[in-house]
């Protein structure tokens, strides 16, 4: 059986290697069980620029998976990861080209690090390996490997959205980046919109490549177990006691401008203003772990959220009621599962998202006898397959307010009916089907 090579910007942490808890490690768990595997990527360590020629490679074997890592210098991390991947490609792919801060030097470092990855990975490749590259940090890696003579099948999957060519071409040298994607045997994206956008870009650039759709999901059975077990967790019970019988609205998002958090807060404020009967009788818990805290745009976003939450609490709060409980510390996955099960409504309102697995996790966590209501942005990748959620435009505060009121006054029978129609899709499109379908396509193209 051919060995599977996973390549990502960063490999899972040591604890995630033993017991995957979230993110890519969970999504790939089933694929990694199939046989011998190698996972290659950045170690997470930064070294002095002067030591670049003496950088260390790391290796650890966990059951059938070998984890191979390489260090980056401070300059490489800054140019490749901070400035180009997250300062250029991330906002561009989330339709926020105005937030790009382009430097040709950062672009050069981005390509150089991809070439570094290719050189280090090539040393470890076998002739029958199958390579699967993950996400926007590594768009050009396939071409860098081909330039070194690698002939193995190479698949690529983009976990975030892909913008229309009219927007993508605002990236200097965009055609060069698009052209590098010809190196991949299979190109995968999350949604039909993403495939249409990417394929239009290929056509505009006269490139012989075609993106295919492979929607990602969760492991619903495992998440149900966590949610049911969470009901008895001390911290979940603490939260339940603190509600004093009031319904709970929950939002869980990494701190990022793509998540529509200021717009969500304004929607909740409009809800309190327009439906005063809910004041003092509902609780909104927003969990927003800080990410990329050293990037100016994210510092400004955090300050904006801090100020907005404070203003809403000051305007509408009372001595025995705080309208928004807003925390920026991460919450363990098993606790989130319990919190989801406890929540009467979930606000999942990104301005643009690749898929958004929080929506699927919330549905999976519900008690079928008394399920909560999912309020979901039209612009989440999950929206087309979750039409029985309350779909909203996150830019419209009144629409969010109306959806919150509807969710909290909805009859039990309607909640059960909506959940009953949402559940099959969560179990139909899973992390397992995503990995299986992509690998099947890659194997099919390999033997074609």
The CATH architecture term of the largest domain is 3-Layer(aba) Sandwich
Task: Decide which structural class fits the backbone.
Answer: alpha/beta
Quick check: average pLDDT? Answer: 94
CATH structural fold name of the largest domain: Rossmann fold
What kind of sheet is the major sheet?
8 strands, mixed
Number of DSSP strand runs: 14
Round the Cα radius of gyration to an integer and report it.
22 Å
Strand order of the largest sheet: 3-4-2-1-5-6-7-8
How is this structure best described in words?
The chain is of the alpha/beta class. The chain folds into 2 domains: 4-213, 3-Layer(aba) Sandwich (Rossmann fold), CATH 3.40.50.2000; 220-428, Rossmann fold (3-Layer(aba) Sandwich), CATH 3.40.50.2000. Helices cover 46% and strands 17% of the residues. Strands 3-4-2-1-5-6-7-8 form an 8-stranded mixed sheet, with helices on both faces. A 6-stranded parallel sheet has the order 11-10-9-12-13-14, sandwiched between helices. Helix 12 packs across helix 16. Involved in salt tolerance by producing GG-phosphate from ADP-glucose and glycerol-3-phosphate (G3P), an intermediate in the synthesis of the osmolyte glucosylglycerol (GG). It catalyses: ADP-alpha-D-glucose + sn-glycerol 3-phosphate = 2-O-(alpha-D-glucopyranosyl)-sn-glycerol 3-phosphate + ADP + H(+). Pfam families: Glyco_transf_20.
Tags for this entry?
alpha/beta; Rossmann fold; 2 domains; 6-stranded parallel β-sheet; 46% helix; 17% strand
Structure in a nutshell:
The protein has 448 residues and is an alpha/beta fold. The chain contains 18 helices and 14 strands. The longest helix is centred in the last third of the chain and has 21 residues, at 296-316.
């Amino acid at each position: 059986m051919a060995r599977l090579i996973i390549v990502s910007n960063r490999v899972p942490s040591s604890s995630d290697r033993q017991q995957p808890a979230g993110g890519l490690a969970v999504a790939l768990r089933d694929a990694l069980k199939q046989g011998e595997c190698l996972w290659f990527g950045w170690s997470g360590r930064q070294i002095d620029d002067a030591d670049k020629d003496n950088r260390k490679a790391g290796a650890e074997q966990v059951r059938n998976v070998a984890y191979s890592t390489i260090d980056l210098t401070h300059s490489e991390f800054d140019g490749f990861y901070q400035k180009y991947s997250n300062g250029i490609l991330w906002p561009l792919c989330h339709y926020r080209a105005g937030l790009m801060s382009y430097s040709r030097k950062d672009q050069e470092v981005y390509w150089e690090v991809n070439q570094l990855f290719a050189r280090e990975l090539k040393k470890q490749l076998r002739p029958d390996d199958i390579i699967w590259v993950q996400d926007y940090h590594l768009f050009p890696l396939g071409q860098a490997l081909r330039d070194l003579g690698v002939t193995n099948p190479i698949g690529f999957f983009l976990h975030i959205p892909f913008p229309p060519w009219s927007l993508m071409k605002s990236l200097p040298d965009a055609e060069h980046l698009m052209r590098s994607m010809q190196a991949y045997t299979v190109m995968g994206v999350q949604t039909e919109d993403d495939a249409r956008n990417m394929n239009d870009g290929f056509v505009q650039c006269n490139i012989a490549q075609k993106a295919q759709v492979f929607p990602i999901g969760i492991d619903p059975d495992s998440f149900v177990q966590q949610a049911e077990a969470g009901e008895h967790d001390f911290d979940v019970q603490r939260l339940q006691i603190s509600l004093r019988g009031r319904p709970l609205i929950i939002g869980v998002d990494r701190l990022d401008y793509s998540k529509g958090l200021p717009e969500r807060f304004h929607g909740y404020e409009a809800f309190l203003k327009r439906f005063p009967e809910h004041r003092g009788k509902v609780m909104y818990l927003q969990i927003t772990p800080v990410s990329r805290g050293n990037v100016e745009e994210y510092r400004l976003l955090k300050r904006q959220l801090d100020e907005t939450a404070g203003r809403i609490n000051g305007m509408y709060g009372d001595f025995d009621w705080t309208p928004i409980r807003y925390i920026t510390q991460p919450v363990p996955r098993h606790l989130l599962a319990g919190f989801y099960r406890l929540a009467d409504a979930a606000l999942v309102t990104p301005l643009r998202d690749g898929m958004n697995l929080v929506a699927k996790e919330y549905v999976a966590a519900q008690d079928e006898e008394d399920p909560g209501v999912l309020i979901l942005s039209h612009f989440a990748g999950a929206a087309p397959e979750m039409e029985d959620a309350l779909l909203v435009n996150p830019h419209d505060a009144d629409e969010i307010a109306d959806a919150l009121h509807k969710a909290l006054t909805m009859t039990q029978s309607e909640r059960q009916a909506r959940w009953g129609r949402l559940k099959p899709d969560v179990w139909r499109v899973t992390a397992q089907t995503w990995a299986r379908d992509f690998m099947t396509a890659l194997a099919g193209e390999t033997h074609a």
